[in-house]
Amino acid sequence: MSGVSPQPDGQTSPAHQATPDQAALEKILRESREIRGVSLWQDAWRRLRRNRSAMCSLIFLIVLMLAAIFTPLLPLQSPIDKDLNNRRFLAPNLQPVVLGGRAGLKFEDGRLTSQLAKYTSDAAEQRAEILAIADAGERDKQLAEFDARTRIEHPFQQLWNNLGPVAFTMCRIRVAIFGDWTIPSLFGTDKLGRDLLARVFWGSRVSLVVGIVATIVSLVIGVSYGAIAGYFGGLTDAIMMRIVDMLYSIPFIFVVIFLVTFLSEDSVKAILENYGIHQITIFYIIIGAIYWLTMARVVRGQVLSLRTEQFIEAARTIGASPMRIVFRHIVPNTLGVVIVYLTLTIPSVMLFEAFLSFLGLGVAPPDVSLGLLLNDGVEALSIIKLFWWVVVFPGAALAMTLFALNFLGDGLRDALDPKMKNRS
Amino acid sequence: MTDLFSYLIRRLGWMLLTVWAVYTFSFILMRSVPGNPFSSERNVPPAIERQLRARFNLDAPPLQQYTDYLVGIVTRGDLGVSIKLEDYTVNEVLAEGFPVSASLAILALVFAITLGVTAGVVSAVYRGTAGDLALMGTAVLGIAIPNFVLASLAILLFVFWIPLFPAAGWGTLRQVILPALCLGAPVAAYIARLTRAGMLEVLGREHVRTAFAKGLPKRTVILKHVLPGALLPVVSYLGPATASVLTGSLVLEKIFALPGIGSHFIYAATQRDYTLAMGMVLTYTVLLFVMNSLVDISYAVIDPRVKLQ
Amino acid sequence: MPPELRRIFVISALLVMGIAVLWATQFDSMPPADFSIQNGTDPKTLDPHRATGQPESRILFGIFSGLLQMLPDGEPDPVTGLQPMSPQPAVAESWEVSDDKKTYTFHLRPDAVWSDGVPITSADFMWSWTRMLHPATACEYNFQLFSVPYAQEFNSGLVEIGDRCEVELFDRPNPDGTTEADTGQASFQAFPRGTMLYGTLKEIRKPPEPTFDDEAGKQLDEKEREQAILNWQETWVYVLDILNQAEPGQIDWDGPTTTQSFTVNLDSPQAAPETQRMHAVLVAFDQLGGIEAPDPHTFVVQLKDPLPYFPSLTAYYPLFPVPRHCIEEHGMPMWTKAENIVSNGAYQVKLRRLRDRVRLEKNPNWFDADQTSIETIDCLSTEGQNTALNMYVTGQIDWVTDPPVALMETLKERDDFYSAPMLSVYFYRLNTTRKPLDDPRVRRALALAIDRQQIVDQVTKAGQVPAFTLVPPGIAGYESPSGFQPDIAKAKQLLVEAGYPGGRGLPKVSVLYNTSEAHRAIAEVIQQQLQNNLNVKVELQNMEWGTFLDKISQLDYDIARSAWIGDYADPNTFLDMWVTDGAQNSTGWSNPDYDRLLQEAAAESDPGKRMQLLADAEAIWIEEMPVIPLYFYVSVNMVKPRIEGFFPSPQDLHPLHLLRIKSPASPTP
């Protein structure tokens, strides 16, 4: 085994020697205590910080995450508003665009802020009228009706789709800060005249959530399953791996169609919503539950060779429980491969999501994901006329995300490798 | 040797069990998903629909359908008549499409292994250099760009701008190269990354350091002592890789208009062609099972510490 | 494992890999055809009685000929370039219509033969039409012959006491020479049929009808009840006076008889020991004078109603003759294999490879073979729009039938692009049994608020025409009622009247469409228009085809995308689907006046009055709006300039034998 051994060196401490040795021993013990104080993870973090490309990727990913979370705050154009008459397939440009300026929207002055002001004052007026009603029952009824109406008629509904309460508030803040100003169509527009920059941002938001949630699910299932199978071997391994083989051989398109149709049954939906679970959450978990198979196989393959290593034998001899050996000694040693594989799973999940959206089982328009954008983009890729921007920008967004994930994965691999501890 | 033999026998038993389980599972699943193969825009009167069902033995009680079809498969290897492709039996569909998919998959895999392993070894040996960065960058691109985007770009590039290959179709070597490259690209990228990770892992082991210390030439150490161990994750990945190449060919079959079985797979599912879908599922099951068994055997061969069980 | 074994393993693995690569690079290549068509997808079948859809029809029109064929007639329209077509002689060299327009007499060419040289006679048509109508064939277009007496009864299996019937015994031959009677297993080779007996139906003995009032019955869903009824019907015992002697074609219905009984299910409580097992008792359609073959070259058809469009129907593939001798020899579906099929069109099938192509070659035995110019044609099953276009650009395809929508504006400017109005309509079906769409005012409001011009100009872009009526323009003698005009103010007004001012309180409505980029784009635009114009929020729901159809037929949707391509050039093909409980209605809509007008129109022999009745019906439909019409399709084709004789036609029909190659084909890579 590598790593600094806490035991003092046998040659330096014969028992009969006097105080100077005692002092030396003390010193060594103190040092060793200090070293033990640095945990595997702190140590890994220390080494990760030294890896420039991994750190750049980490920063990029954090920025990306923040951007995805706070997309509604950014001064982007509307991701769903289609200006068919004037803005179809515009190449990237710097033409200023006013939020809510499309004629078809019929906004006051052709700006969102004016419309919003008008709407707010109208609403306040009507609300005051309702509040003036003497009869309390009637008043509450009208008030409830009024609130329902506000939700439907709010100008934001024309520009954003199904905003949750948090996103709605963020849009409010965005309008308060930036007003009608938007970033021009730096990425061009698509075949229906929607701003591609906004769509790439909103699409990344969905794709990232899918990728991360599903991958975490697959990680948890896959690693435990693979490690247990590999460690115990024999019949357990055979049965567990045969189950994986079976699952591999099932065409998941069936499973997904089945589950999605089952989940969209009204009764099932109602039960789930009782527990506060949105249908789409289950959907992410399904994808994750599909993707654990390869992870399990890879981990098991690694464990098969690890279980004959001496340190496992050692752990077994001192009577560590199998579960402890698996999760304490084996799993950390497989992390290198797991992390490499993790950086490969997130993209597959993102691509699988695209494939499903394409089949009509993923996000429904007007919501958008990177996969959907790429599908649209490829459609417009032809030798007759080349709308390069509809495929290049979503493609670059996806590629950059995955690049970053990858370099971070590499960095983590080096940093987490127990054999590299305290080296370099 | 007897090891291997008894392993194969046991494996065969497992395979039959797997096929049976997959058959049962798919059978139940297919019949519980809404929709039926006779849905069409013009509604069929019930009496006529019954005639149609009778033709495909779909009017029998589910349990009898289950056993009849299973008996047909086991005794005659007969997967039935395709419900949607009326003029064909499922066996004929497979016989026509499988060689195409198989030769595409073989070329793609060979390409992926050759390129992936080479790139992985080179970039591990020259770790940290610009070459390593470039190779791994390309590998990530291969993973990061969806198949269909890659294929579309490749067509623009190698069909129109540099006219090397025909746009689509099947029947000549030139027509198969481009789809095989596109199909193999993501797999090559995966393999390159797995190889590199495995190489770095093994390079840090004691026996490799000992080998270097003994003064063995670098090439010998890498090929004899490092590569076999480093290839373990790669070999382990080959099973899934086959699966992904076979199913993943769906998109490429469409873009390059290839007559493989990949596209039947999705159609059978969405059109509720029960028999064809079942035929596809079982074919994939057997295929993947065989591939995974081969992977396990290779495992034992490459790594002496692993025993076949 | 010993090291030497390991070495052997590695070497053999490499060897296997090498052999695999060698095998994978072996191809049996085929010279390209003279002319290649993008056929969209694989034809589902080459049996004219089982086919539906365009990929099938393109091939069937090439390899079979009916009594008549649609051919160019008159000058093309100067504006659209649309070439009018009319039914003209094919296998029938001439035909006559009686004065009451109810009897058609076709005179067949004496020299018409199948591609294997066997002569085509009127008996072939008798047999083919009977097969087409037979319930076991389940032809989706069988309604096209329902105006022939007894056709509908024959097809639906309806018999009444006193009807002259045929009984098909349970002894259909199996391919291996045995019969059903030997094996007890039903053979589903619908034709050739089992022993036929003829006679008059005397009595039907029915066991008690199942009821669903008890506990068990109430738990059954509709499907299960339907099955229970069907099971019950199978236990009916039919008693007939069977003619002792009956030669098909010359049956003396008053001849001596013996009474016999038959049933489908011998376990029936009503079955007597002498009761015989049978397939079905059906009205003896082909023996009752609806269709007759007085001599081998004369074929007479009687109609119940004077249908002006009947000649066009005979030029449509469901009424094409099929080769009895070939079907009886090979059985179904084997007869449609490339090596078995016998046809009678300008082309014959040389080769068929799934997901790849159907190779056609010139049929030298066709009656007009001198007219055919191109020797071989490939119908390629290319689905991808961009793929087909790429192949077109590189010269692998000569005729693109489905160009990419994204490029439509650019392609439209090209000389090799053909587009012309077509008899078909794209519409949104509304579920009139659910709130809020059960209210005609809401339906109209939605219809009024959609800007169709924007959809055809900016989304579909190939010159489609906004639809405000159901029946496309361009049907001779028919003028649709004026329809409506988009009017947002009026739409808002209607919503107020319906009790949803400003879209408030309107229950959630979703638009269902089957997976396709084009449908999605249209749905997204309509979603935005309704949101902007009416403050009505609709959800989009995307389903794959199987589930999509299921949801529609079970009325489990709010709004569903749909389209209808006219089967023949008459308003009736668009109107009769909306009658109460019509098989294609699927909206729950029903209007007695509408049903009555359509019935009257069918019985009307004066063309002018008939068209007026149909127009009145359409006016009711527009008022009630069970469906929102969006636009009328155009046919869109791209054909290489080296091809001559291609012209846009109203039903997108392009007879293959009229195409010519201008200059010698340059060899394609």
Automatic annotation (TrEMBL), chain A:
This is Oligopeptide transport system permease protein OppC. Belongs to the binding-protein-dependent transport system permease family. OppBC subfamily. Its main location: membrane. Residues 204-409 form the ABC transmembrane type-1 domain. Gene3D superfamilies: MetI-like. It is found in: Cell inner membrane; Cell membrane. SUPFAM superfamilies: MetI-like. The lineage of its organism: Bacteria, Pseudomonadati, Planctomycetota, Planctomycetia, Pirellulales. InterPro entries: BP-dependent_transpt_permease, MetI-like, MetI-like_sf, OppC_N. Residues 1-21 are annotated as: Disordered. The keyword Cytoplasm does not apply. Residues 1-20 have a biased composition (Polar residues). CDD domains: TM_PBP2. The keyword Ligase does not apply. It is a multi-pass membrane protein. One of its GO terms (biological process) is peptide transport. The chain crosses the membrane at residues 54-74, 206-232, 244-263, 275-294, 330-349, 386-408. Keywords: Cell inner membrane, Cell membrane, Membrane, Peptide transport, Protein transport, Transmembrane, Transmembrane helix, Transport. PROSITE patterns: ABC_TM1. GO terms for cellular component: plasma membrane.
UniProtKB/TrEMBL annotation, chain B:
Residues 98-299 form the ABC transmembrane type-1 domain. It comes from Allorhodopirellula solitaria. Keywords: Cell membrane, Membrane, Transmembrane, Transmembrane helix, Transport. CDD domains: TM_PBP2. This is Dipeptide transport system permease protein DppB. GO terms for biological process: transmembrane transport. The keyword Transmembrane helix applies. Belongs to the binding-protein-dependent transport system permease family. SUPFAM superfamilies: MetI-like (SSF161098). PROSITE patterns: ABC_TM1. It is found in: Cell membrane.
From TrEMBL, chain C:
InterPro entries: Peptide/Ni-bd, SBP_5, SBP_5_dom. One of its GO terms (cellular component) is outer membrane-bounded periplasmic space. GO terms for molecular function: peptide transmembrane transporter activity. GO terms for biological process: peptide transport. Pfam families: SBP_bac_5. Residues 87-146, 261-585 form the Solute-binding protein family domain. This is Oligopeptide-binding protein OppA. CDD domains: PBP2_OppA. It comes from the Bacteria.
